[in-house]
Amino acid sequence: MQQATMEAAVQTSAVPAVNADQRKPSSGLTAAQYIVEQLAEWGVARIYGVIGDANLDVLDALAKQNRIAYVACQHEESAALMASAEAKLTGQVGVCMATSGPGAANLLNGVADAAMDYVPLLVLTGQVETYNIGTRAKQYIDQQKLFSGVTDCSELVTHPDALPELLQTALTTAITQGKPAHLSIAKNMYRLPVNGTVKPYPRHLKQELLVPDEPVREAAELIRGAARPVLLIGRGVSGAAAEVIRLAEQLPAAIVTTLPARPLVPNDHLHYAGGLGQAGSEAASVLLSESDLIVMLGATWWPDEYVPSQARVLQIDKIPAQIGQGHPLTRGIAGDAADIVPRLVRELEQSPAPNRLPWKARIAEVNAAWKGRIEAEANQKTEPLAPQLAVKLVAEACAENAVVTVDTGDHTLWFNRIFQAKRGQSVLLSGRWRTLGFALPAAIAAKLAQPRRQVVALAGDGGVVQTIMELRTAARMKLAFTLVIFDNGSYAMERNRMSVQGLNTLGSELESPDFVKLAESCGASGYRVTTEEEWEKALQLAANSSDVPVVIVVKVADTMVPHTK
Protein backbone atom coordinates (compact mmCIF):
# COMPACT_ATOMS: atom_id res chain seq x y z
CA MET A 1 0.00 0.00 0.00
CA GLN A 2 2.82 2.35 0.91
CA GLN A 3 4.67 1.43 -2.30
CA ALA A 4 1.57 2.25 -4.41
CA THR A 5 1.23 5.60 -2.68
CA MET A 6 4.86 6.45 -3.37
CA GLU A 7 4.53 5.45 -7.02
CA ALA A 8 1.42 7.63 -7.37
CA ALA A 9 3.30 10.54 -5.82
CA VAL A 10 6.17 10.07 -8.27
CA GLN A 11 3.78 9.94 -11.20
CA THR A 12 1.97 13.05 -9.97
CA SER A 13 5.18 14.99 -9.54
CA ALA A 14 6.17 14.06 -13.08
CA VAL A 15 3.06 15.67 -14.54
CA PRO A 16 4.06 19.14 -15.79
CA ALA A 17 2.17 22.20 -14.55
CA VAL A 18 -0.29 23.64 -17.04
CA ASN A 19 1.50 25.88 -19.58
CA ALA A 20 4.81 25.50 -17.74
CA ASP A 21 7.82 26.63 -19.76
CA GLN A 22 5.61 27.74 -22.63
CA ARG A 23 6.52 31.14 -24.03
CA LYS A 24 3.97 33.57 -25.34
CA PRO A 25 3.46 33.29 -29.10
CA SER A 26 5.60 35.56 -31.23
CA SER A 27 3.82 38.60 -32.60
CA GLY A 28 6.14 38.67 -35.60
CA LEU A 29 6.73 42.33 -34.79
CA THR A 30 9.59 44.33 -33.40
CA ALA A 31 8.86 46.43 -30.31
CA ALA A 32 8.57 49.59 -32.44
CA GLN A 33 6.12 47.89 -34.80
CA TYR A 34 4.19 46.41 -31.90
CA ILE A 35 3.63 49.85 -30.35
CA VAL A 36 2.17 51.18 -33.60
CA GLU A 37 -0.03 48.13 -34.23
CA GLN A 38 -1.37 48.03 -30.66
CA LEU A 39 -2.24 51.74 -30.68
CA ALA A 40 -3.99 51.35 -34.03
CA GLU A 41 -6.10 48.53 -32.56
CA TRP A 42 -7.21 50.96 -29.86
CA GLY A 43 -8.33 53.46 -32.49
CA VAL A 44 -5.50 55.95 -32.02
CA ALA A 45 -5.56 58.20 -35.08
CA ARG A 46 -2.54 60.44 -34.44
CA ILE A 47 0.70 60.65 -32.50
CA TYR A 48 2.07 64.14 -31.81
CA GLY A 49 5.78 64.39 -31.28
CA VAL A 50 9.27 65.68 -31.98
CA ILE A 51 12.03 63.55 -33.48
CA GLY A 52 15.00 62.39 -31.40
CA ASP A 53 17.52 59.56 -31.44
CA ALA A 54 15.54 57.56 -28.86
CA ASN A 55 12.38 57.34 -30.98
CA LEU A 56 13.71 56.91 -34.53
CA ASP A 57 12.56 53.30 -34.84
CA VAL A 58 8.99 54.20 -33.88
CA LEU A 59 9.00 56.93 -36.52
CA ASP A 60 10.21 54.40 -39.06
CA ALA A 61 7.37 52.05 -38.11
CA LEU A 62 4.85 54.89 -38.39
CA ALA A 63 6.14 55.81 -41.83
CA LYS A 64 5.54 52.26 -43.12
CA GLN A 65 1.81 52.11 -42.30
CA ASN A 66 -1.28 54.25 -42.87
CA ARG A 67 -3.50 53.67 -39.82
CA ILE A 68 -1.89 56.24 -37.53
CA ALA A 69 -0.71 59.68 -38.68
CA TYR A 70 2.36 61.30 -37.20
CA VAL A 71 2.19 65.04 -36.48
CA ALA A 72 5.70 66.52 -36.38
CA CYS A 73 5.58 69.46 -33.96
CA GLN A 74 8.00 72.31 -33.39
CA HIS A 75 8.28 71.66 -29.64
CA GLU A 76 7.47 68.78 -27.33
CA GLU A 77 5.32 70.96 -25.05
CA SER A 78 3.05 71.66 -28.01
CA ALA A 79 2.92 67.96 -28.87
CA ALA A 80 1.60 67.15 -25.40
CA LEU A 81 -0.86 70.05 -25.49
CA MET A 82 -2.17 68.86 -28.87
CA ALA A 83 -2.65 65.34 -27.55
CA SER A 84 -4.37 66.67 -24.43
CA ALA A 85 -6.68 68.90 -26.49
CA GLU A 86 -7.61 66.02 -28.82
CA ALA A 87 -8.49 63.88 -25.79
CA LYS A 88 -10.63 66.70 -24.36
CA LEU A 89 -12.48 67.08 -27.63
CA THR A 90 -13.00 63.43 -28.53
CA GLY A 91 -12.90 61.57 -25.21
CA GLN A 92 -10.40 59.13 -26.75
CA VAL A 93 -6.81 58.55 -25.68
CA GLY A 94 -4.45 61.23 -26.96
CA VAL A 95 -0.85 60.19 -27.65
CA CYS A 96 2.36 62.23 -27.59
CA MET A 97 5.96 61.14 -28.03
CA ALA A 98 9.45 62.50 -27.39
CA THR A 99 13.03 61.39 -27.09
CA SER A 100 14.88 60.85 -23.82
CA GLY A 101 16.16 63.55 -21.47
CA PRO A 102 15.29 67.08 -22.59
CA GLY A 103 12.64 65.84 -25.02
CA ALA A 104 10.84 64.03 -22.24
CA ALA A 105 11.20 67.01 -19.90
CA ASN A 106 9.71 69.36 -22.50
CA LEU A 107 6.52 67.25 -22.56
CA LEU A 108 5.79 67.84 -18.89
CA ASN A 109 3.80 71.07 -19.19
CA GLY A 110 1.29 69.57 -21.62
CA VAL A 111 1.08 66.32 -19.66
CA ALA A 112 0.29 68.31 -16.52
CA ASP A 113 -2.57 70.01 -18.41
CA ALA A 114 -4.08 66.59 -19.14
CA ALA A 115 -3.53 65.43 -15.55
CA MET A 116 -5.24 68.45 -14.01
CA ASP A 117 -8.24 68.26 -16.36
CA TYR A 118 -8.70 64.49 -16.08
CA VAL A 119 -8.27 63.53 -19.72
CA PRO A 120 -6.80 60.25 -21.04
CA LEU A 121 -3.27 60.64 -22.38
CA LEU A 122 -0.55 58.17 -23.32
CA VAL A 123 2.99 59.54 -23.13
CA LEU A 124 5.73 57.63 -24.97
CA THR A 125 9.34 58.58 -24.36
CA GLY A 126 12.56 57.01 -25.49
CA GLN A 127 15.21 56.16 -22.94
CA VAL A 128 18.93 55.45 -23.07
CA GLU A 129 20.10 51.89 -23.68
CA THR A 130 19.46 49.40 -20.88
CA TYR A 131 23.18 49.20 -20.11
CA ASN A 132 23.31 52.98 -19.59
CA ILE A 133 20.30 53.27 -17.25
CA GLY A 134 21.40 54.75 -13.92
CA THR A 135 24.70 56.02 -15.31
CA ARG A 136 25.86 59.49 -16.35
CA ALA A 137 25.10 58.76 -20.00
CA LYS A 138 24.02 61.71 -22.10
CA GLN A 139 20.31 62.55 -21.92
CA TYR A 140 19.68 60.09 -19.11
CA ILE A 141 17.30 60.97 -16.31
CA ASP A 142 15.08 58.77 -14.19
CA GLN A 143 11.91 59.41 -16.19
CA GLN A 144 9.68 57.56 -13.76
CA LYS A 145 10.61 60.11 -11.09
CA LEU A 146 10.31 62.92 -13.63
CA PHE A 147 6.73 62.02 -14.57
CA SER A 148 5.55 60.81 -11.16
CA GLY A 149 3.77 64.05 -10.32
CA VAL A 150 1.67 64.18 -13.49
CA THR A 151 0.87 60.52 -14.26
CA ASP A 152 -0.99 57.72 -12.53
CA CYS A 153 1.17 55.10 -14.26
CA SER A 154 4.81 55.39 -15.34
CA GLU A 155 6.85 52.33 -16.31
CA LEU A 156 10.20 51.56 -17.91
CA VAL A 157 10.39 48.94 -20.69
CA THR A 158 13.67 47.02 -20.53
CA HIS A 159 12.59 43.79 -22.26
CA PRO A 160 10.42 43.43 -25.38
CA ASP A 161 8.31 40.66 -23.83
CA ALA A 162 7.18 43.08 -21.10
CA LEU A 163 5.88 45.54 -23.68
CA PRO A 164 2.44 43.97 -24.35
CA GLU A 165 1.42 43.98 -20.70
CA LEU A 166 2.91 47.39 -19.90
CA LEU A 167 1.37 49.07 -22.95
CA GLN A 168 -2.01 47.50 -22.27
CA THR A 169 -1.84 48.63 -18.64
CA ALA A 170 -0.91 52.18 -19.64
CA LEU A 171 -3.76 52.43 -22.15
CA THR A 172 -6.26 50.95 -19.72
CA THR A 173 -5.16 53.30 -16.94
CA ALA A 174 -5.49 56.33 -19.21
CA ILE A 175 -9.00 55.53 -20.43
CA THR A 176 -10.45 54.30 -17.13
CA GLN A 177 -8.85 56.82 -14.78
CA GLY A 178 -8.95 59.80 -17.14
CA LYS A 179 -5.30 60.50 -16.40
CA PRO A 180 -1.97 60.43 -18.26
CA ALA A 181 -0.01 57.18 -18.37
CA HIS A 182 3.65 57.03 -19.36
CA LEU A 183 6.01 54.45 -20.85
CA SER A 184 9.72 55.06 -21.31
CA ILE A 185 11.35 52.58 -23.68
CA ALA A 186 15.05 51.83 -23.75
CA LYS A 187 16.16 52.51 -27.30
CA ASN A 188 17.95 49.18 -27.74
CA MET A 189 14.55 47.47 -27.27
CA TYR A 190 12.87 48.84 -30.41
CA ARG A 191 14.30 46.36 -32.94
CA LEU A 192 13.93 43.25 -30.80
CA PRO A 193 11.08 40.79 -31.51
CA VAL A 194 8.07 40.81 -29.20
CA ASN A 195 6.49 37.65 -27.81
CA GLY A 196 2.85 38.49 -27.18
CA THR A 197 -0.08 39.36 -29.41
CA VAL A 198 -1.73 42.65 -30.27
CA LYS A 199 -5.03 42.88 -28.42
CA PRO A 200 -8.21 44.59 -29.64
CA TYR A 201 -9.79 47.42 -27.67
CA PRO A 202 -11.69 45.87 -24.73
CA ARG A 203 -15.18 47.32 -25.03
CA HIS A 204 -16.03 46.70 -21.39
CA LEU A 205 -13.82 49.67 -20.51
CA LYS A 206 -16.61 51.98 -21.72
CA GLN A 207 -19.38 49.98 -20.11
CA GLU A 208 -21.23 52.18 -17.64
CA LEU A 209 -22.18 50.79 -14.25
CA LEU A 210 -25.78 51.76 -13.49
CA VAL A 211 -26.65 53.31 -10.15
CA PRO A 212 -29.29 51.42 -8.07
CA ASP A 213 -32.76 52.96 -7.74
CA GLU A 214 -32.53 53.83 -4.05
CA PRO A 215 -29.79 56.52 -4.29
CA VAL A 216 -31.64 58.10 -7.21
CA ARG A 217 -34.90 58.19 -5.22
CA GLU A 218 -33.08 59.73 -2.25
CA ALA A 219 -31.57 62.39 -4.52
CA ALA A 220 -34.99 63.12 -5.99
CA GLU A 221 -36.41 63.59 -2.48
CA LEU A 222 -33.61 66.00 -1.63
CA ILE A 223 -34.33 68.03 -4.76
CA ARG A 224 -38.09 67.91 -4.20
CA GLY A 225 -37.66 69.44 -0.78
CA ALA A 226 -35.61 72.41 -2.02
CA ALA A 227 -37.24 75.81 -2.48
CA ARG A 228 -34.40 77.48 -4.42
CA PRO A 229 -32.39 74.87 -6.41
CA VAL A 230 -29.44 75.67 -8.66
CA LEU A 231 -27.79 73.27 -11.12
CA LEU A 232 -24.00 73.68 -11.37
CA ILE A 233 -22.87 71.76 -14.44
CA GLY A 234 -19.51 70.86 -15.93
CA ARG A 235 -18.36 69.12 -19.09
CA GLY A 236 -19.15 65.77 -17.45
CA VAL A 237 -22.82 66.20 -18.47
CA SER A 238 -22.07 66.45 -22.20
CA GLY A 239 -24.03 63.25 -22.80
CA ALA A 240 -27.04 64.48 -20.85
CA ALA A 241 -27.30 68.19 -21.69
CA ALA A 242 -30.86 68.02 -23.00
CA GLU A 243 -32.04 66.18 -19.89
CA VAL A 244 -30.28 68.69 -17.63
CA ILE A 245 -32.16 71.53 -19.32
CA ARG A 246 -35.39 69.57 -18.94
CA LEU A 247 -34.68 69.11 -15.22
CA ALA A 248 -33.99 72.84 -14.80
CA GLU A 249 -37.27 73.72 -16.50
CA GLN A 250 -39.18 71.11 -14.52
CA LEU A 251 -38.05 72.34 -11.09
CA PRO A 252 -37.45 75.27 -12.02
CA ALA A 253 -33.78 75.84 -11.22
CA ALA A 254 -31.09 78.27 -12.28
CA ILE A 255 -28.24 76.82 -14.37
CA VAL A 256 -24.61 77.81 -13.76
CA THR A 257 -21.79 76.36 -15.86
CA THR A 258 -18.05 75.93 -15.68
CA LEU A 259 -16.34 77.47 -18.70
CA PRO A 260 -15.96 74.25 -20.79
CA ALA A 261 -19.65 73.49 -20.22
CA ARG A 262 -20.98 76.81 -21.55
CA PRO A 263 -22.05 75.40 -24.94
CA LEU A 264 -24.10 72.66 -23.28
CA VAL A 265 -26.84 75.17 -22.43
CA PRO A 266 -28.20 77.82 -24.80
CA ASN A 267 -26.75 80.98 -23.30
CA ASP A 268 -29.99 82.86 -23.99
CA HIS A 269 -32.07 80.33 -22.01
CA LEU A 270 -34.21 81.98 -19.33
CA HIS A 271 -32.71 79.75 -16.63
CA TYR A 272 -29.07 80.22 -17.67
CA ALA A 273 -27.26 82.44 -15.16
CA GLY A 274 -23.81 82.36 -16.79
CA GLY A 275 -20.39 81.11 -15.84
CA LEU A 276 -18.77 80.45 -12.50
CA GLY A 277 -16.09 82.45 -10.70
CA GLN A 278 -14.51 85.87 -11.22
CA ALA A 279 -14.72 85.46 -14.98
CA GLY A 280 -18.29 84.27 -14.76
CA SER A 281 -21.38 86.28 -14.01
CA GLU A 282 -22.59 88.26 -11.03
CA ALA A 283 -25.98 86.60 -11.63
CA ALA A 284 -24.46 83.18 -10.97
CA SER A 285 -22.86 84.40 -7.75
CA VAL A 286 -26.12 85.97 -6.52
CA LEU A 287 -28.25 82.91 -7.27
CA LEU A 288 -25.72 80.51 -5.77
CA SER A 289 -25.64 82.59 -2.59
CA GLU A 290 -29.46 82.52 -2.34
CA SER A 291 -29.86 78.83 -3.15
CA ASP A 292 -30.80 76.22 -0.54
CA LEU A 293 -29.68 73.26 -2.70
CA ILE A 294 -26.93 73.16 -5.32
CA VAL A 295 -26.92 70.12 -7.57
CA MET A 296 -23.42 69.61 -9.02
CA LEU A 297 -23.44 67.56 -12.20
CA GLY A 298 -20.15 66.53 -13.81
CA ALA A 299 -18.32 69.60 -12.48
CA THR A 300 -14.92 69.48 -10.80
CA TRP A 301 -14.08 73.19 -10.49
CA TRP A 302 -15.60 75.41 -7.83
CA PRO A 303 -13.35 78.18 -6.45
CA ASP A 304 -13.51 78.56 -2.67
CA GLU A 305 -14.68 82.18 -2.69
CA TYR A 306 -17.75 81.21 -4.76
CA VAL A 307 -18.88 78.28 -2.58
CA PRO A 308 -21.87 79.45 -0.49
CA SER A 309 -21.51 78.45 3.15
CA GLN A 310 -25.24 77.96 3.72
CA ALA A 311 -26.20 75.77 0.77
CA ARG A 312 -26.62 72.02 0.82
CA VAL A 313 -24.79 70.27 -2.05
CA LEU A 314 -25.87 67.17 -3.97
CA GLN A 315 -23.06 66.03 -6.26
CA ILE A 316 -23.20 63.49 -9.09
CA ASP A 317 -19.95 62.52 -10.78
CA LYS A 318 -18.48 59.53 -12.61
CA ILE A 319 -15.32 59.64 -10.51
CA PRO A 320 -16.02 58.91 -6.82
CA ALA A 321 -12.83 60.68 -5.72
CA GLN A 322 -14.14 63.96 -7.15
CA ILE A 323 -17.21 64.01 -4.95
CA GLY A 324 -17.00 66.41 -2.01
CA GLN A 325 -13.59 67.79 -2.97
CA GLY A 326 -13.18 71.41 -1.88
CA HIS A 327 -16.80 72.11 -0.97
CA PRO A 328 -19.53 71.01 1.46
CA LEU A 329 -21.41 67.82 0.63
CA THR A 330 -24.86 66.71 1.70
CA ARG A 331 -25.18 63.71 -0.63
CA GLY A 332 -22.94 62.21 -3.28
CA ILE A 333 -23.75 59.72 -6.04
CA ALA A 334 -21.03 58.11 -8.14
CA GLY A 335 -22.43 57.56 -11.62
CA ASP A 336 -22.97 58.89 -15.11
CA ALA A 337 -25.25 61.92 -15.45
CA ALA A 338 -26.56 60.44 -18.71
CA ASP A 339 -28.02 57.59 -16.63
CA ILE A 340 -29.01 59.46 -13.48
CA VAL A 341 -30.53 62.74 -14.71
CA PRO A 342 -33.31 61.16 -16.83
CA ARG A 343 -34.22 58.97 -13.86
CA LEU A 344 -34.35 62.03 -11.61
CA VAL A 345 -36.69 63.70 -14.10
CA ARG A 346 -39.00 60.68 -14.05
CA GLU A 347 -38.96 60.47 -10.25
CA LEU A 348 -39.81 64.15 -9.89
CA GLU A 349 -42.60 63.91 -12.45
CA GLN A 350 -44.37 61.30 -10.33
CA SER A 351 -44.80 63.61 -7.33
CA PRO A 352 -45.55 67.36 -7.58
CA ALA A 353 -42.79 69.67 -6.42
CA PRO A 354 -43.45 72.59 -4.06
CA ASN A 355 -44.51 75.92 -5.54
CA ARG A 356 -41.34 77.56 -6.81
CA LEU A 357 -42.91 80.45 -8.71
CA PRO A 358 -41.18 83.06 -6.50
CA TRP A 359 -37.81 81.41 -7.23
CA LYS A 360 -38.57 81.29 -10.96
CA ALA A 361 -39.36 85.00 -10.88
CA ARG A 362 -36.15 85.71 -8.94
CA ILE A 363 -34.06 83.78 -11.51
CA ALA A 364 -35.64 85.75 -14.33
CA GLU A 365 -35.08 89.08 -12.54
CA VAL A 366 -31.40 88.44 -11.73
CA ASN A 367 -30.62 87.02 -15.19
CA ALA A 368 -32.33 89.88 -17.02
CA ALA A 369 -30.32 92.46 -15.08
CA TRP A 370 -27.09 90.58 -15.78
CA LYS A 371 -27.75 90.17 -19.49
CA GLY A 372 -28.56 93.85 -19.80
CA ARG A 373 -25.25 94.70 -18.16
CA ILE A 374 -23.06 92.54 -20.38
CA GLU A 375 -24.89 93.73 -23.51
CA ALA A 376 -24.06 97.30 -22.53
CA GLU A 377 -20.41 96.35 -21.90
CA ALA A 378 -20.16 94.52 -25.22
CA ASN A 379 -21.49 97.49 -27.18
CA GLN A 380 -18.97 100.04 -25.95
CA LYS A 381 -17.45 102.16 -28.71
CA THR A 382 -13.89 102.89 -27.68
CA GLU A 383 -10.46 103.16 -29.21
CA PRO A 384 -8.73 100.79 -28.89
CA LEU A 385 -11.58 98.27 -28.92
CA ALA A 386 -13.00 97.30 -25.54
CA PRO A 387 -12.12 93.65 -24.81
CA GLN A 388 -15.85 93.01 -24.21
CA LEU A 389 -16.68 94.16 -27.73
CA ALA A 390 -13.82 92.10 -29.17
CA VAL A 391 -15.19 88.95 -27.48
CA LYS A 392 -18.69 89.74 -28.77
CA LEU A 393 -17.30 90.05 -32.31
CA VAL A 394 -15.54 86.68 -31.93
CA ALA A 395 -18.79 85.09 -30.70
CA GLU A 396 -20.72 86.44 -33.66
CA ALA A 397 -18.10 85.05 -36.04
CA CYS A 398 -18.27 81.52 -34.61
CA ALA A 399 -20.41 78.93 -36.39
CA GLU A 400 -23.10 76.94 -34.62
CA ASN A 401 -20.75 73.96 -34.36
CA ALA A 402 -17.43 75.80 -33.94
CA VAL A 403 -14.61 74.54 -31.76
CA VAL A 404 -13.27 77.50 -29.76
CA THR A 405 -9.88 77.04 -28.12
CA VAL A 406 -9.04 79.54 -25.40
CA ASP A 407 -5.62 80.39 -24.03
CA THR A 408 -4.89 81.52 -20.48
CA GLY A 409 -4.82 85.22 -19.69
CA ASP A 410 -6.89 88.36 -19.27
CA HIS A 411 -8.89 87.52 -22.40
CA THR A 412 -10.02 84.24 -20.76
CA LEU A 413 -11.86 86.20 -18.08
CA TRP A 414 -13.52 88.44 -20.67
CA PHE A 415 -14.42 85.37 -22.72
CA ASN A 416 -16.24 83.70 -19.84
CA ARG A 417 -17.99 86.96 -18.96
CA ILE A 418 -19.16 87.99 -22.43
CA PHE A 419 -19.10 85.06 -24.87
CA GLN A 420 -22.55 83.73 -25.71
CA ALA A 421 -22.07 80.07 -26.58
CA LYS A 422 -24.35 78.10 -28.88
CA ARG A 423 -25.44 74.49 -28.56
CA GLY A 424 -23.21 72.40 -30.78
CA GLN A 425 -20.07 74.40 -30.04
CA SER A 426 -17.11 73.09 -28.05
CA VAL A 427 -14.83 75.13 -25.79
CA LEU A 428 -11.33 73.80 -25.09
CA LEU A 429 -9.04 75.37 -22.52
CA SER A 430 -6.37 74.58 -19.96
CA GLY A 431 -8.82 74.39 -17.07
CA ARG A 432 -6.94 73.80 -13.84
CA TRP A 433 -3.33 73.89 -15.00
CA ARG A 434 -3.95 77.15 -16.89
CA THR A 435 -0.81 77.09 -18.95
CA LEU A 436 0.04 79.84 -21.39
CA GLY A 437 0.22 78.75 -25.02
CA PHE A 438 -2.67 76.27 -25.04
CA ALA A 439 -4.95 77.78 -27.72
CA LEU A 440 -2.82 77.35 -30.86
CA PRO A 441 -1.76 73.69 -30.33
CA ALA A 442 -5.35 72.91 -29.30
CA ALA A 443 -6.66 74.47 -32.51
CA ILE A 444 -4.31 72.31 -34.58
CA ALA A 445 -5.47 69.16 -32.78
CA ALA A 446 -9.13 70.15 -33.14
CA LYS A 447 -8.80 70.76 -36.87
CA LEU A 448 -7.05 67.43 -37.37
CA ALA A 449 -9.53 65.48 -35.25
CA GLN A 450 -12.68 67.15 -36.64
CA PRO A 451 -11.71 68.84 -39.92
CA ARG A 452 -15.26 69.77 -40.98
CA ARG A 453 -15.83 72.02 -37.98
CA GLN A 454 -14.84 75.67 -37.87
CA VAL A 455 -11.97 76.18 -35.41
CA VAL A 456 -11.27 79.54 -33.76
CA ALA A 457 -8.39 80.03 -31.34
CA LEU A 458 -8.35 82.95 -28.91
CA ALA A 459 -5.07 84.00 -27.29
CA GLY A 460 -3.42 86.96 -25.62
CA ASP A 461 -0.22 88.61 -26.75
CA GLY A 462 1.54 87.28 -23.66
CA GLY A 463 0.47 83.65 -23.95
CA VAL A 464 0.55 83.11 -27.70
CA VAL A 465 4.33 83.56 -27.95
CA GLN A 466 4.83 80.39 -25.90
CA THR A 467 3.79 78.18 -28.83
CA ILE A 468 3.52 80.59 -31.79
CA MET A 469 5.96 78.61 -33.93
CA GLU A 470 3.33 75.88 -34.28
CA LEU A 471 1.87 78.18 -36.93
CA ARG A 472 4.53 76.61 -39.12
CA THR A 473 3.15 73.16 -38.25
CA ALA A 474 -0.37 74.28 -39.16
CA ALA A 475 0.70 75.93 -42.42
CA ARG A 476 2.76 72.92 -43.46
CA MET A 477 -0.29 70.69 -42.92
CA LYS A 478 -2.58 73.18 -44.73
CA LEU A 479 -4.92 73.58 -41.76
CA ALA A 480 -7.42 76.40 -42.16
CA PHE A 481 -8.46 77.93 -38.84
CA THR A 482 -8.44 81.40 -37.30
CA LEU A 483 -6.15 82.53 -34.49
CA VAL A 484 -7.31 85.77 -32.84
CA ILE A 485 -4.64 87.50 -30.76
CA PHE A 486 -5.78 90.07 -28.17
CA ASP A 487 -3.01 92.66 -28.15
CA ASN A 488 -3.07 94.90 -25.06
CA GLY A 489 0.69 95.24 -24.68
CA SER A 490 0.96 93.54 -21.30
CA TYR A 491 0.35 90.57 -19.07
CA ALA A 492 -2.80 92.42 -18.09
CA MET A 493 -4.20 89.95 -15.55
CA GLU A 494 -0.97 89.97 -13.55
CA ARG A 495 -0.41 93.71 -13.93
CA ASN A 496 -3.91 94.51 -12.73
CA ARG A 497 -3.55 92.24 -9.70
CA MET A 498 -0.23 93.86 -8.87
CA SER A 499 -1.77 97.34 -9.19
CA VAL A 500 -4.70 96.45 -6.91
CA GLN A 501 -2.23 95.24 -4.27
CA GLY A 502 -0.01 98.31 -4.60
CA LEU A 503 2.88 96.31 -6.04
CA ASN A 504 5.40 97.44 -8.61
CA THR A 505 4.32 96.09 -12.02
CA LEU A 506 7.80 94.96 -13.00
CA GLY A 507 7.72 92.23 -15.66
CA SER A 508 4.16 92.88 -16.82
CA GLU A 509 4.88 95.01 -19.89
CA LEU A 510 5.24 93.38 -23.31
CA GLU A 511 7.11 94.32 -26.44
CA SER A 512 5.63 91.80 -28.83
CA PRO A 513 6.94 90.94 -32.28
CA ASP A 514 4.95 91.95 -35.34
CA PHE A 515 2.52 89.04 -35.26
CA VAL A 516 1.36 89.69 -38.82
CA LYS A 517 4.87 89.41 -40.23
CA LEU A 518 5.59 86.43 -38.01
CA ALA A 519 2.46 84.69 -39.27
CA GLU A 520 3.40 85.36 -42.87
CA SER A 521 6.94 84.08 -42.31
CA CYS A 522 5.43 80.81 -41.03
CA GLY A 523 3.26 80.42 -44.13
CA ALA A 524 0.04 81.74 -42.56
CA SER A 525 -1.95 84.88 -43.38
CA GLY A 526 -2.02 87.80 -40.97
CA TYR A 527 -4.16 90.90 -40.47
CA ARG A 528 -4.08 93.72 -37.92
CA VAL A 529 -7.39 95.09 -36.65
CA THR A 530 -8.10 98.30 -34.73
CA THR A 531 -11.76 98.96 -35.64
CA GLU A 532 -14.98 97.01 -36.14
CA GLU A 533 -14.80 97.71 -39.86
CA GLU A 534 -11.31 96.22 -40.10
CA TRP A 535 -12.53 93.24 -38.11
CA GLU A 536 -15.29 92.56 -40.62
CA LYS A 537 -12.80 92.75 -43.50
CA ALA A 538 -10.33 90.42 -41.77
CA LEU A 539 -13.11 87.94 -41.04
CA GLN A 540 -14.12 87.86 -44.68
CA LEU A 541 -10.54 87.18 -45.71
CA ALA A 542 -10.30 84.44 -43.08
CA ALA A 543 -13.52 82.85 -44.34
CA ASN A 544 -12.05 82.67 -47.85
CA SER A 545 -8.93 80.85 -46.65
CA SER A 546 -9.16 77.12 -47.26
CA ASP A 547 -5.62 75.86 -46.78
CA VAL A 548 -3.70 78.10 -44.34
CA PRO A 549 -4.29 79.39 -40.83
CA VAL A 550 -5.28 83.05 -40.54
CA VAL A 551 -4.00 85.26 -37.72
CA ILE A 552 -6.07 88.31 -36.73
CA VAL A 553 -4.32 90.66 -34.31
CA VAL A 554 -6.88 92.81 -32.47
CA LYS A 555 -5.68 95.89 -30.60
CA VAL A 556 -7.73 96.03 -27.38
CA ALA A 557 -7.85 98.25 -24.31
CA ASP A 558 -6.29 96.93 -21.10
CA THR A 559 -9.53 97.31 -19.12
CA MET A 560 -9.44 95.77 -15.65
CA VAL A 561 -11.76 92.80 -15.20
CA PRO A 562 -14.34 93.39 -12.41
CA HIS A 563 -13.64 91.78 -9.02
CA THR A 564 -9.87 91.73 -9.63
CA LYS A 565 -8.05 91.11 -6.34
Can you give a write-up of this model?
α9 links the parallel β9 and β10. The chain folds into three domains: 181 residues, Rossmann fold; 156 residues, 3-Layer(aba) Sandwich (Rossmann fold), CATH 3.40.50; 177 residues, Rossmann fold, CATH 3.40.50. It has a six-stranded parallel sheet with strand order 3-2-4-5-7-6, sandwiched between helices. Strands 11-10-9-12-13-14 form a six-stranded parallel sheet, with helices on both faces. It is of the alpha/beta class. The termini are far apart. α2 runs parallel beside α7, α10 packs antiparallel against α12 and α13 packs across α14. The chain is globular and about 75 Å long. It is built from 19 helices and 20 strands. It is 38% helix and 18% strand.
Question: What does this entry show, briefly?
Answer:
This protein has 565 residues and is α/β, with parallel strands linked by helices. The protein is 38% helix and 18% strand.
Layout of secondary structure:
Layout: H1 2-14, E1 26-30, H2 31-41, E2 46-49, H3 56-63, E3 69-72, H4 76-90, E4 94-98, H5 102-116, E5 121-127, H6 143-146, E6 153-157, H7 163-177, E7 180-186, E8 193-195, H8 213-224, E9 229-233, H9 241-250, E10 254-257, E11 272-275, H10 282-290, E12 293-297, E13 312-317, E14 331-334, H11 337-350, H12 357-378, H13 387-397, E15 403-406, H14 410-418, E16 426-429, H15 439-449, E17 455-460, H16 470-476, E18 482-487, H17 492-500, H18 515-521, E19 525-529, H19 532-543, E20 550-555
> Helicity, in percent?
25-40%
Largest sheet: 6 strands, parallel
Shape: globular
Strand order of the largest sheet: 3-2-4-5-7-6
- The tally of structural domains comes to 3
CATH superfamily of the largest domain: Thiamin diphosphate (ThDP)-binding fold, Pyr/PP domains
Count the E strands: 20
The structure class reads alpha/beta
Distance between the termini: 92 Å
CATH topology of the largest domain: Rossmann fold
Radius of gyration: 27 Å
Beta content comes to 15-25%
